[in-house]
Amino acid sequence: MKNRRWLAASTGVVAIFLLIEGGWTAWIIDGVHQLEVIPGSTFATAEDVAWAKSYLPAMYVVAIEGLLFGAIAVVGAIGLLTERLWARRMLLVASVLLTLTAAVAIGMAPHKWDMQGIFILFCVLLWWESKKWRGE
Fold it and tell me: pTM score, two decimals?
């Protein structure tokens, strides 16, 4: 029981991080779409604006990752707390997909390695915990 609460709590924390990252990135995507050349600013040339817009594909991946897997993590945390058998399986499958998505995000935008690394680390911890589930 104690192990399940710990896992549900950490899943909830990761869900919050995922949802914040996805929402923040979606907000940034909107801002990047509205970028214009403004002399004397950070985006003073057309090349600067083009550089910012070149990161849009990676931003879409991160936004979708955060919002989708954040929602899955919320459902998984609730499922763990209510002792549903499907919650463990769902979290294991979602963790594999999250790890793959995080690796793609790191490949597309290497400067995002820090937050993506946290998600990968959580997935590794989940896999480690899943070894204990086999005995239950």
Answer: 0.85
